[in-house]
User: What shape does this take?
Amino acid sequence: MTDTFKGYALGVAAAASYGLNPLFALPLLGAGVDAYSVLFLRYFFAVPMLAVMMVVRGRGFGLRRGQVVPLAVLGILMAFSSLALYLSYAYIGAAIASTLLFVYPILVTLIMALFYHERVSRLTVVCILLATAGIGLLYRGDDGAVLSPMGLLLVFLSALSYAVYLVAVNRGQMKEIPTLKLTLYVIAFGLLLFAFRFRMGTFAILSANPWLWASAFSMALFPTAISLICTSAAIHKIGSTPVAILGAMEPVTAVAIAILVFNEVLTPRLAIGMLLVVASVTLIIAGGSITHHLLRVRKMFPRLNRHWRKRLAKSQEVAP
Assistant: This one.
């Protein structure tokens, strides 16, 4: 098995594991746990997982004074993005919500063009038109019924918040913080926000069905810890751009789960709309300059970085 094959397999695993959000969140929401409490549980379990990863990878926990407030702001952005997505599940299906959320790379491109004067290429314009056409197909079903405006608004706000987050983590002092440490503190600040709305009755609901505890733990394990580890390993093997493109597996996984597990209906019209959205985002990643905004994990595993540098140097020594 070649490193290239392993890299693509890891990239698919990273995106697919992140796309498992509906699989674990929907049972909790369906059991009566509110979105704030669901996210509190996800973040609560994620914090120690990330802390253990930092210890294993030899990372320190210290921060400079000027980094605390920006990290708190990033925590608010991330928490709001997660909350808006989970709230949208009550208005529109998880398949459509996950697909619409995937427009965040296009929003990153627009933010960079509007506020940082990056050039908008023809490809970007074409991709935006494709995504708009796809959203138009998703907006109205085959029976003429339209999606909930509130659901669409929540997904858009979720994608926009995440796009702003991705731009912010690559600028100023935040750019100097290793991604693993940054993610830990962002999740920790988000946890503090959700703690104020956590309902103690949640424990009674979880105790009535032990599988719900497994769902809560899995939300932190798969979309957070495993996704981060696989993303970092994949980048080392095949580079950032292919891994970003493989991110299309996120909505594909979520759609498959929504259909196979939660019996959501996928009509030809919806399928074409989803395909247009995924294709537009994939094209903009492949032909644009935003990959470094979507993936910034090279500094996450310093020991792994040294290993690959040594391996690369050794291969250059033996090269003819």
Observations:
- DSSP finds 16 helices and no strands in the chain.
